[in-house]
Amino acid sequence: MAADPERVGDTRVEKASLASLLEKTLYSESLDCVHCGLCLTSCPTYRATGRETASPRGRVYLMRGLAEGRLEETELLEEEAFACLGCRACETACPSGVRYGEMLENTRAAIRFSRRGLNFATRIERLALRQIVPRAGRLRLMVVLLSLLQALGLDHLGARILPRRLADMLKLLPTIPPMAKRRRMPPHTSAIGERKGRVALFEGCVMPEFFGRVNEATRLVLSRAGYEVIVPQSQGCCGALQAHSGDLAFARNLAERNLGAFGGEVGELDAIIVTSAGCSAALREIENWVGEAGASVAAGVRDVLEFLDEADVELGLRPIAKRICYDDPCHLIHAQGIADAPRRLLEAIPDLELVAHRNPESCCGAAGIYNLTQPEMSKRVLSPKLDALVDANPEIVATANPGCALQLAAGLAERGFAASIVHPIELLEEASRP
Ligand code: SF4
Ligand code: SF4
Fold first, then answer.
1. Mean pLDDT of all residues in 346-351
2. Which residues sit with their C-beta closer than 6 Å to ligand 1?
3. Which residue range is the domain that position 83 belongs to?
């Protein structure tokens, strides 16, 4: 694969690092796959298509072909690498410990690096992921413009008259919260009652704008549980979306910024608390991008539900008499192995009836920005989950990742099913409210 020099300058990926990516990382990791096929049925794209090349085993085979330089035509690999959800259900199923998520990011980076010029869709994606998402001021401005659009009802008009793909994007947009709910967290919150420790809160990039209520609930619950909460002001976007899209160089820059924000203080902290499963998975694997320098930060990262469950905190919970389904975000269950903690916390709320639905562990199709880049497959993947949720008939659906929350909300609304979509920490906050 010949590299485009312009793109090399753009991504700051050097030829040597591409060679190392392919030969040392991708090739050696692909050897772990013994072609047993135990991952096939766990893969949503394989289940949807029945194609071997759309399965984890098929994709690993293609990746190995790329690393060995045997792949003469790379179009099929390019197509399958970007049609993969990156949900990592195959990692959970794999008995050989294939690190599929990391291989996928490396493959996408190699593909992006080798392309001669970027197509229009990739340019837009890169612009959004480099110039808007990680830049708080620009993101805020965009959200303000979107809220104006909604206030004037132009989003409904757009959904009717725009081409289908753009209309689908508008439907995924949640109601923008009022400005008061989009404030950044205060840098310091004292512990209430007996002091148990000190934690740092990772805010994320999109979370404060669309899910500020989740960060606020987290801050309040931690403080009620006896933890002093600090919010390092120099923190930024975790880089997960950029890495998933193959822009590893930019993800590394973002990771280094967070090392500076959390690294120096991590020794004095009990944990770095994260409220979005995609972000906690990325920060836990920060060493993949920055090497050993990220070890102490990675070791301190805890998803808020995992932390509260481990800490076994006493919150004096009051009843919430509702029927609820919990749906596992892939980056919590498959990337971090966290499935029981959220359920245990929800079960601790008196009168909250936690009902299982039959498809909690399969991807919802959001997968970062997959629902924007691959809308058809995203809907096919989402459909069985919606069937299961509608059959279970909950009043509340809880999930712990912002992308999943938006995807489930849009899908259930399209089916005319009225359920509120919340993060479990919001229910804990409500139940522990003084
Ligand atoms: S990450 Fe998900 S979609 Fe991709 S190969 Fe693995 S199971 Fe299939
Ligand atoms: S389960 Fe693991 S070892 Fe078996 S085919 Fe899938 S990726 Fe390869």
1. 98
2. 42-45, 56, 59, 84-90, 100
3. 5-114
